[in-house]
Each structure stands twice: as C-alpha cells, then as structure tokens.
C-alpha cells in the first residue's frame, strides 16, 4: 500500500513539473501572446470591471460573449468576422481585418437560421504593436477589424480595446515579455458619407447627363444623315449604270485616291456650323476616328504610336506593383521582389514618362514647322491648297497623320525666308503677331486637354471620398481633400510646383510639366522663325542649365538613388520641370531634323550597325544599371540629370532609324496598325488608371497575398479597364473638344464650299 501511495505521489509531482514547464514555455512564447491579443473571450472580464461602456452596448456584448462561450453559431460568426492574429506577422503583415462582408452577411435572416438578436456593425481600429527587440522591434501600425453589436459606437469599442490593452500588458509582464500594444483610434466602416448627397456628384452627374444626351442626339442625327447619304449614292449609282457612264463621284475617286479616303471617312454630306457643332459629339464618327487602323499615307513617324502605347503600359505596370505592395499581407515580399534583377524595370521606371516628353517635343516641332510652311506656301501661291483646308485636323492624334510628317513642297520654310531680306530685330507688328500666335497655340492645347482632364479630376475626387469612407485600409492618397482645395492648380497646369502632400492627382505632375515644356517649346519655335541660331543656342543653354540645376539639387540633398525608394526626392527633383525638360528638348531637335530632311536620310550601314547597339545599351544601362540597388551621391547626381536626356537620345536614334527606313522589325512592331487606336487612348488611360486601381483595390475587405504572377494578372486587368474607360472619356470629352476647336477655327469652311 505504501509503495502504491509513493508511486501516485511521484507521478503527481512529475505531472506538475511537466505542466509547469509547459505553462512556462507557453507563457513565454511571443507568438502565443500575439495570438491572445484582442480575444473577445476576455471582454466579459472587462465588462465585469470598471468601465464606461453604454448600457445597451454592454447588454448586447454580454449576450454575445455568453453565446460565444456556449458555442452558438451566430456568436461564432461574429467572432470569426473580427480581426484576430493572422499569419505572416513576421513577414510584414499589418492587417488583422477580419471580414466586413462576413459581418454584414451573418445578419441576413432570409438565408440563415441562426442570426444575432441584434444588428451588427464593423469598425477598424489602428493599433501600435511592439514585441521585444527581435520579433517586432520597431513599433508597427496594425489595422484590426471588429464586428460588434450596432449599439456599440466607436467610443465604446475604443474603451474595450484600451481595457484589453491593460490585460495583455499584464500578461506580457508576468511572462517576462517586453511587448505592448496601444489603440490609436477607431473608425466605423462605412462612415457617414453619403455620395448621393454630395453636391459635386450632382454637378458631375448633370454634366455627364447633358453630354450623354448630346452624344445620343448627335449619333442618331448622324446615323440619319449617313443613311440618307448612302441612299442618295445608291440612286446615283443606279442612274449611272442605266446611262452607262461614270458618275462624278467615281471620276473624283479615280483622280484622287486621298479624296476617296476622306469620303469614306465622312460617310455623309457636309453640314452647316450649328449642325457640325451638334455632330461633334457623335459616337459614330468619333468612334471611327479613334478606332481607325488606317495607316497614314503621307508620313513615316508611325513608330511613335508604339512608343507611346508601350510607355503607358509600363506606367500602369509600375502603379500596379505599388498598389499591391500597399495592400499586401506579406509586405516583406516587397523586399524579396526588389532583390530581383528585373525589378529594376519597376524601380527605374521614371524613364517611361521621358518617352512622353520626347514624343511631345518632336510632334510640337514637326506640326509647327508644317503649319508655318503651309502659311508661306499659301501666301506665295495666293490660294489655299487641298492640304491647307484641314491643317489642324490631325493635331489631336485621333487620325494617323497626327504622328507623321506630311508630304511637303520642295522648298522649305527656311528657304522661303532666306529669299527675303530679314531685319535683325523685331518690329512692333511682329512682336504682336508672335504674342498672338503664342496665346492661340497655348489656348488650343488647353482647350483640347482640359475637358477630359477636369472630368477625371472631379471623378477622382468623388471616387476617393467614397473609397476613404468605405475602405478598411488607409489609403496614402488624400485626393478627396487635396482635389477639393487645390483643383485649380491642376487646371492651370502648375500643380507640380507645389509639395506632393498638397497635390491633387499626384500622377498628373506629368500634365503640368508637359504643358510648361510646351510653353518653352513654342517660344523657341516662334523665335526660330526669324532667328534660328539664337533659338538653337537658347535650347542648348536651357538643357545644360537643367543638368547643372539637377546636379546641384541632388548633391545638396546628398541624394543616393535607391531601387526601394524611387520617389524619395519627389518634391525637390522628380516632378520639377527644370530636371525633366531634357527629353522634350531632344525631341524638338529630332523633330526639326526629320522635318528638314523629309525623313529621307541615307545612313551608312556602319552607322546603323553602331547606332542600334548603342541605343539598346543606353536604354539597358539606365534601367538595369543599378546592380547594387543604389548609387552613391555623385553617380546619382549624373544619373538623375543627364540620364533623362540620355534616354531621349536613345529614343532619338530609334525614331530617326524607323522614320528613314532603317528600323526593320522594330519599326514593324512599333508601327503595327493595331496599336494606332490604342495610342490615341493613352492620354485618358494615363489620367484615369490610378483612380481605377485605388477604387478596386481599397474596397477589398481584406489584404492580398503578394506574388509576382498575381500582380501581373491584376496588371493585365487594370490595363484593359484603363483603356476601356479611356475610350468612353475620349468619346465624351476629348474627341468633341478637338472637333469643336476645328469648327470655331474655321475648319468647316471647306465643307461649306463643297456643298
């Protein structure tokens, strides 16, 4: 008997020792402590103690916790919909969000037999979490979702979380863990914002309704005119067949193939000015103009279409990565991704915008020189040529010749000027004429671009305000505030001159820069009409001063370029015109050269053999040259200054080679007909794609798991959505604006004369 008792005592002691070791191990586990955070089972202890939770909220919470301990399904669903410990906490997870949708769904009595006896609501709390010096040494902000009875307001939830903070802090102290968390604030999701009561929605909706009705009426009217025109043509054809002689239309087609192309595009008889104003919003003609794949018959710069389209795709890819990085539950995967050699194409993607600047400078120069030569020819000939009648038709980029050099006369504009004595200075009349030309060209650009731009600004503000009110995340962009205060800066195209935190639509810095470069460009072009050498010297001085200023600012800030922080110097350097104008000026030089040479340059084959590899080496080194992930101060200074111009120099070779017949497969790919309509949509796609990204991403009720394959799949979807939205915006705003400008600029005179 004694031996038996001794055995029982020994076993009891061993069990106690083992149990004590287990408890000590568990109590000292950092992961076990984190898993016990924000446990609703502890809330009964809080309610039994001293608190100031409202009475109705306390009653509902007691009923919920009692049901949770009893294993009721509806209570388990509330617990499951609330944020708990989630994996990847040591791999960058900052979201314990639970599920907003689950918190809503569990109340639906028509679908579930067991539902809560009270309505529920959802809150998101922001807490700061710290766990010793190894696990989470730096205070990490966490977003935690809480599904609770609707009788509990945000203050009641804050009281519960503050009390829970005391409980878990005491547990950490008993276990010898240096860990804590604190609740910063609690907010309801969704908030109190009602988009239907927003006056700006009423304004934007009214404008959209008016435009939609206008588009419908114009499309119906144009459809009627086209049907009548086709019926008339059919009757004329029948009469011609009966008389066995060609019609005047067929003779005109035989004599002039270009006229035949224009007739096929018109598909109706010309109308008066008021009818043309109505028809400027027609979906039929505008849609055909945007989606047309007819290659230009009068030029060779179709490679610019491909450059523009590929650059926009590049921009969308970069913004997709940045968006997914922000809402990922494994943020450390970003660090892993950034170690990849090919990720430099994302971190060093600022050059894609330089492509836009290069193309803009090139086209502005070519189109200006074309128009000036046609003015000289018209003055000399004392009569307008056919090509003069629609001189501004294709400047907008909706038809192919907007990006091509037209067939021009044998004598250049400069040769015409040299035949006449030119005074060294400017007369008063010449100065007035230059100023008038400057404001006419600037007004044309502003009127052409601003309607679509203003619409996207208004749309973006509403979307971001709704998103901030309904998201469980914390978007880092506050356009619902900045666009409300500072939209006028965007409309004036000066938003890049202000701090990033005060910018509406941060990505619209490109629009401001491009417009400011346009101002500089047309001033230089107007000067070049009379003083070509002075204009060229000024251009070079502006470029060199841009390099010097950028180098000075970079060195002054001791800036070291890093893959991880591509926008670290956004305010001092990234979006400033004095650091980004280089590609635009290179584009102007290339545009002048192609115009002067008529795209008929004989390039020696040894130059071609050197030019292509050199261009590719420059492009590759600028994108993938940061092999260590960063540059020191002085290499960074040259990288951010001369690098942008070097990128444009590489593009200059591609443009010249493709234009002059040395592009080969590259020119065939960039000039592919299928890219023409997509190229015309790049402007609106650039404007609207971040809005689409933020709306679709931040309205998720939980984070995404970052993986390259998933990012690329989402990127493809964003690209498609961006171009579909761009097509709608172009139909409603951009294309009509261009046609109205043409009408008020006298573009319908030729149509009237043909009646």
Automatic annotation (TrEMBL):
TM spans, by residue?
Answer: 201-225, 309-328, 348-369, 438-459, 507-527, 534-557, 577-595, 607-627, 647-669, 681-700, 712-733
Matching Pfam families, A to Z? Acyl_transf_3, NRF
Q: Where is the Nose resistant-to-fluoxetine protein N-terminal domain?
A: 54-184
Q: Where is this region: Disordered?
A: 239-262
Q: Which residues form the signal peptide?
A: 1-20
**UniProt xrefs under SMART domains:** NRF
Q: Which UniProt keywords apply?
A: Membrane, Signal, Transmembrane, Transmembrane helix
Polar residues bias: where?
240-255
Which protein, by its recorded name, is this? Nose resistant to fluoxetine protein 6
Look up and give the organism this protein is from: Bicyclus anynana
Gene (name only): LOC112050169
């Amino acid at each position: 008997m004694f031996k038996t008792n001794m055995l029982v005592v020994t076993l009891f002691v061993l069990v106690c020792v083992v149990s004590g070791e287990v408890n000590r191990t568990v109590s000292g586990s950092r992961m076990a402590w984190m898993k016990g955070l924000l446990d609703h089972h502890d809330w009964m202890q809080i309610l039994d103690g001293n608190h100031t939770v409202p009475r109705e909220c306390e009653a509902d919470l007691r009923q919920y916790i009692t049901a949770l301990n009893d294993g009721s399904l509806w209570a388990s669903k509330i617990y499951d919909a609330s944020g708990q410990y989630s994996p990847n906490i040591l791999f960058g997870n900052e979201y314990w969000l639970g599920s907003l949708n689950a918190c809503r769904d569990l109340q639906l009595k028509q679908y579930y037999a067991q539902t809560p006896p009270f309505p529920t609501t959802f809150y998101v709390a922001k807490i700061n979490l710290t766990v010793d010096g190894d696990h989470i040494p730096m205070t990490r902000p966490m977003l935690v979702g809480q599904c609770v009875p609707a009788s509990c307001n945000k203050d009641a939830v804050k009281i519960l979380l503050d009390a829970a903070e005391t409980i878990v802090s005491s547990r950490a102290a008993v276990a010898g863990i240096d860990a804590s968390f604190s609740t910063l604030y609690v907010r309801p999701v969704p908030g109190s914002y009602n988009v239907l009561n927003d006056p700006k929605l009423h304004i934007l909706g009214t404008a959209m309704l008016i435009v939609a009705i206008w588009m419908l009426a114009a499309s119906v009217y144009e459809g009627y005119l086209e049907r009548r025109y086709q019926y008339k043509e059919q009757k004329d054809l029948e009469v011609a067949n009966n008389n066995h002689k060609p019609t005047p239309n067929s003779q005109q087609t035989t004599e002039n193939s270009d006229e035949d192309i224009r007739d096929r595009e018109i598909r109706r008889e010309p109308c008066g000015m008021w009818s043309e104003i109505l028809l400027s919003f027609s979906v039929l003609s505008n849609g055909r103009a945007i989606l047309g794949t007819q290659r230009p018959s009068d030029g060779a710069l179709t490679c610019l279409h491909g450059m523009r389209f590929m650059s926009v795709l590049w921009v969308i890819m970069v913004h997709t990565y940045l968006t997914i990085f922000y809402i990922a539950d494994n943020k450390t995967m970003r660090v892993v991704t950034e170690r990849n050699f090919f990720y430099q194409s994302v971190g060093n993607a600022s050059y894609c915008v330089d492509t836009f600047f290069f193309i803009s400078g090139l086209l502005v120069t070519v189109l200006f020189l074309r128009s000036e030569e046609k003015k000289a020819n018209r003055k000399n000939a004392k009569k307008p040529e056919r090509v003069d009648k629609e001189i501004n038709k294709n400047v907008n980029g909706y038809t192919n010749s907007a990006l091509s050099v037209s067939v021009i006369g044998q004598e250049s504009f400069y040769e015409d000027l040299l035949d006449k004595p030119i005074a060294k200075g400017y007369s008063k009349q010449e100065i007035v004429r230059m100023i008038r030309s400057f404001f006419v060209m600037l007004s044309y650009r502003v009127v052409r671009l601003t309607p679509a731009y203003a619409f996207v600004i208004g749309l973006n503000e509403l979307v971001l305000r709704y998103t901030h009110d309904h998201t469980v995340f914390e978007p880092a962009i506050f356009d619902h505030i900045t666009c409300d205060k500072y939209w006028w800066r965007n409309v004036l195209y000066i938003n890049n001159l202000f701090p990033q935190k005060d910018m509406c639509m941060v990505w619209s810095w490109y629009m401001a820069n491009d417009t400011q470069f346009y101002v500089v460009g047309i001033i230089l072009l107007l000067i070049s009409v009379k003083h070509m050498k002075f204009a060229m010297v000024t251009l070079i001085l502006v470029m060199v001063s841009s390099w010097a200023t950028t180098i000075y600012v970079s060195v002054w800030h001791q800036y070291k370029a890093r893959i991880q922080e591509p926008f670290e110097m956004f305010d001092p350097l990234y979006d400033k015109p004095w650091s980004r104008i280089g590609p635009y000026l290179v584009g102007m030089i290339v545009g002048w050269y192609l115009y002067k040479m008529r795209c008929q340059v004989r390039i020696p084959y040894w130059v071609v053999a050197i030019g292509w590899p050199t261009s590719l080496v420059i492009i590759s080194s600028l994108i993938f040259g940061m092999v260590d992930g960063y540059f020191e101060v002085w290499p960074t200074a040259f990288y951010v200054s001369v690098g942008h111009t070097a990128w444009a120099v590489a593009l200059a070779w591609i443009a010249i080679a493709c234009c002059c017949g040395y592009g080969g497969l590259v020119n065939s790919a960039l000039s592919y007909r299928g890219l023409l309509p997509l190229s015309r949509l790049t402007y609106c796609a650039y404007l609207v794609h971040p809005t689409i990204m933020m709306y679709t991403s931040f309205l998720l009720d939980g984070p995404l798991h970052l993986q390259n394959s998933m990012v690329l799949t989402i990127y493809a979807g964003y690209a498609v959505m961006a171009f579909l939205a761009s097509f709608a915006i172009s139909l409603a705003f951009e294309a009509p604006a261009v046609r109205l400008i043409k009408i008020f600029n006298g573009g319908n005179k030729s149509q009237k004369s043909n009646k």
